Amino acid sequence: MNKALRKAVIAGNWKMNKNRAEAKELIEALKPVVADAKCDVVICVPYTDLETAMAATKGSNIKVGAQNCHWAKSGAFTAEISADMLTEMGVEYVIIGHSERRQYFGESDITVNHRVRAALDAGLTVILCVGELLEQREQGITSEIVSMQTKVALGGVSAEELKRIIIAYEPVWAIGTGKTATADQANEVNHCIREVVAELYGKAAGDAITVQYGGSMNAANAEELLGKEDVDGGLIGGASLKAPDFAAIVAAASK
User: Could you give the CA distance from residue 218 to residue 132 in angstroms, rounded to a whole number?
Assistant: First the structure.
């Protein structure tokens, strides 16, 4: 991390976990243990938990995000949620392009871009996910894949709007597998992403953008990962569902 240049952000992605009662219980456990965080703290919860999370986090330093949004304002898109629906609730963040959305639900680089556009237009801060498959890493094309995903996702995004985008590098082979990129691997790809942003928007923008790591970061490896220059936080999966583990990661980012 380099806090002199950019924000450190720890965001929990709860995925499809926790009913409303469980969500409230976890948030109440989180509030005291992250209250003194010297980084931004976000929880991205299932749609059904959003109202509960907004109420439970009121007055705390924990911000609330959703896990996706549609690109249209309204219409015949059964089971989808618009960005405006999220902002009307007071939600501030949204994850776009998570590897599980790409893998299981047909998200493409183009639809990711459309969703980014809608989220920004609605006033949300976007956590934009990019990352390569295992076979792409083995083929030595990680930088090409991640660069392309980043460039397409940011199509039409102004320099001013870029200030409301966080990029999360998520190696697909490390999501939910227990495998983690080494700290050096994470730093290398995060630096590549930063260079892409600098190419598109200038060096100052590249230096200022928060680039998280999001592949099985946990309480045990967080300090090493976050000690790297270009790792500005984490998008946390399983470890975000346990208050002590999430608090340990927040503490590591607060150093």
Answer: 20
- Say which residue the tokens 């556009």 belong to: 117
Of the pLDDT bands very low, low, confident and very high (cuts 50, 70, 90), residue 68 is very high
Return the amino acid letter for 59.
G
Predicted local confidence at residue 175, as pLDDT = 74
Determine contact, residues 190/206, Cβ cutoff 8 Å.
no
Q: Check pLDDT > 90 for residue 174.
A: no
Pairwise CA distance, residues 126 & 94, whole Å: 5
Q: What angle do CA 41, 63, 80 make, to 5 degrees?
A: 120
Half-sphere exposure in the Cβ direction for 138 (13 Å, CA): 5
Q: Active-site residue numbers?
A: 98, 170
Alpha helices in the chain (DSSP H): 20-34, 50-57, 83-89, 99-105, 109-121, 134-138, 142-153, 159-162, 183-201, 203-208, 222-226, 243-253
Residue among 82, 96, 148 nearest 125 (CA): 96
**pLDDT, mean of residues 54-74:** 98
Q: Amino acid letter at 86?
A: L
Say if CB 215 and CB 186 are below 8 A apart.
yes
> What pLDDT score was predicted for residue 187?
96
Exposure letters 104-142 (e unless 16+ CB within 10 A, then b): eeebebebbbbbbbbbbebebbbbbbbbbbeebbeeeeb
Helix 142-153 with 109-121: angle, nearest 10 deg: 40
pLDDT above 80 for 180? no
Contact predicate 169/213, CB 8 Å = yes
